[in-house]
Structure prediction request, 966 residues.
Amino acid sequence: LDSRLEQQLTLLREAGDLGWKCCWDSLTANRQPGIVFAAAATAVSHPDEAPFKQLTDYANAAPDTAHELIAALGWVAPDHLRGRVRDLLASTSPLLRYVGITVCGLHHVDPGSYLDAALKDSGLRLRARALRVVGELRLQRYLPVLRQHLNHANETWRFWAAWSASLLADGNGLDVLQQIVEHHAEPALQQRAVDLLARAMGIEPARLWIRQLLLDEHLTPLVIHGLGVLGDASAIPWLIGRMSGAAEPAKLAGAALSLITGVDLAKEGLVANTSESAEDAKPADPASLPRPDSKAVNQWWSRQRRRYKKDRCYMMGFPINLEVCWQTLVHGQRFQRAAAALELALLEPQTAFFPVEAPGFRQWEWLSAIGTTAPMGDDTRSTIPQPFAPKARSKVRKSLAPPEPVVANSSVELSTLPTPRPLSRRARRIDQSLVSAMDALAELTRPVSQGWLFRRRVLLRPSDSRAAPKIAVTPLLEPDSREPGAVIWEDERTVPLPEPTSATILTARNILSTQKLQSDGSDLDRPSRPSTPSKRKKTRPAALPESGQDRSPVILSPVTFEWYFERIAEIWRMRHALATARYSLFHHLCEMDRYLKSYLEYLPEVTDDFWRKIDSLPAEKWKAGHLFAASYIALRDNRMQRLRKVVDIALARTRIDQGFVSAFGWMPPSVAKNRVHSLLNSKFVKWRHLGMVTAMANHVDCKNFLEKLTNDLDINLNIIAIKAIGKLGYANLMPILLRNLRSIHEDQRFWAAWSAILLGNRRTALEIMKGFALCPMPLRQQQALQLILRVADCREVDRWIAVAEQHNHRLHAAMANAGACDNIAWVPWLIESMRSPERASFAGEVFTLLTGIDLIDEGLMRPRVIHPSESQWVGSMELAQSLLPDLKAVQAWWAANQHRYQKGKRYFFGQEITLESCLCLLNTGRQYQRIMAALELSLLKTNSPLLETQASSFQQQTWIGHLRDG
Prediction:
């Protein structure tokens, strides 16, 4: 079909001006599907530039024809382009730049600096395609850019960044892809994510993950698709069971069966008698395949099942390898060929994608050049592919010598066209760290299917005193007697198995950057702990098969304590950056906390020798992450000497004390409370001050200390204790606040009024707070306005705002920055403020808090021009901070949606201010939105603590649950 189409296009090209005139006249007279394709394929080969310029102008004015222009430019040979694509890349039109980037991907040509610009472009489609091209062309230099996009609010950008990062063997992308599947993203993105995840995770982890997806019935089509992608022959009976159900799952199950076994359902007579014939089916769409006959398929499978092993992955009836993938490209249907191309991309990490979208005759040239096709009979000109039976790898090596790489066209600069070969040694040099991580995850998750759980981690003493100890994760074994001496047990508790998510893959990969997890039963005697029959019964699920094999301890080696300590410090640093970023989402913080928790739970016992290494760390090298790791160890072990060390470091270097404060959030509440009370009972003022900061950040009950601390001789300790009364919700201590409203110290008066307002005093305290509205210090003024504008009488606030707008523009701007603009009267001023780069960011945030529209998600932002004076901060900026609201786009959105909002009504994130709306935003919002939601919630429930949005996500989820329950 493609050859016949190419013959017709050749006639148009050879007709010259007459051919182009016919195309253009047809295009302007009757724009039917396909005419732009024919015209573009003709114009690009015309010797003059005018026809192509005329056509691109037409396509730019009619964006819905861009896909035909792209198809035409991908169709023609690279030597016909003659720099036309470069003109597209340099165009001022975002649509034409998108076309140029896409065509570069189709021809596997690196766009160079044009790709750099596209990755920073604010256009949704352009940047998404640029992120995709990075993965398709295996451009490792852009890996940092991909990582920046993994936490982006835009789902499409986040997906393609994760997709490309995964192809570049960066495990961070796998976690994002898994979230996209599990959180009901766009179906097309979910399917692509499953395509990659099922292949990258390995058979055992993928089985467990897919089994988890079955808990959500809406994900059943993805489960069926994923099993076909995985090539899991043990799932075929389950797939056959789906064939007797609804039509769509039945067809998907048939497609999965075809991909695993290679069976042609129509030719084998395995199709149900329906009105749809095999000829009507579209092979490119698995859901449109003929519906299988479940009984006939079951009989066929009973004859074929012996060929397949449960621990192997299959494609087209053969164990997956390079040779099978290449032959699937020759003989497979469209969706099978796409699967083979992706499998090849993972097996050959340095080779670009095989382009299954390219014209068939060009694909045939590539495949014929490397010997994956064979002529029929004696006709050497025949292009009919022949059936292929893959040989064993050893036989292939003996019979074939690797041919020279094939270059499709020498005129293509920087071409990365794939050079497929039936034999490739690269498969033996794939990313070993990723392979090790997959093996590690398989070892970690295998106990689930064997019915046993991990005993808590233990420390294995090496036989050589100079060698570092090893961490051992030991199973709960059957025998009641234990042979002493092999392993030092830390305690008797068992811990749940880590969830088989890609976060575990990351953990395994980081632990095993160069070496696989190994089972080594010869080095250790198998320890066991006395346990009652009832305890064993609880830890052995009856539904899972019992097995006494492979129960030797799993050794994680080599892991030094220094490596573990530094790794925890680095992860906490990333976690802290996420918690303090204004635009980060709460579920991203939850994912990071789960990642950090996996390290903390398997942290080995810290001996005195190990602690001395921490103690000897020079003071100037201590960072907040190091202080967090050391504080966690000291708090967990409850050793006074270690506690003194971390407290001294926290007090000596106040800029890193957040690491010390954060560590309390990872302790059990009772442990954290005891340690904080020890600090508050100290005779040292600085220790008491540190205890108060920690109590507020972690919602630790310290009510019994506050009356004494508010009378402390140290004024700074007085102030923080007064603030704690309001932040922690101690309404019964209101007399202390009322007394301090008359203090001669300004800071004491302010925080007494602030706490009293939070606890419900809206009279005396509010009048005193109004006095701080004109404070010359911007931060203090903002803190005052955040409360005044929310709790004062609405009519009084409106009059105050009107006066400020006319006579005090600085105060009016401060009111907006306080985030309390809760009625639509503010909208015209906010939109006007977006004209000013200095005020645009805050105006955009306040507009979002009022209307509920996320400007980033909705694509209502534009790139920000960085002033030279800000260049030193570019590296530390959030990605969202490099964007500003797009004034025209926001105006258009408001014009179309303002009817949804009523005058005189208060709004918070587009809804009425209620307990439920605030709790919802705390669970789903960005950090700057969650801060405002926490404040609104505290004012609604006057006796509840002001939620700390930077605390660990586990704490926050507990607090949110308490607020919801009561």
Remarks:
- The two ends are 68 Å apart (CA to CA).
- The longest strand covers residues 470-473.
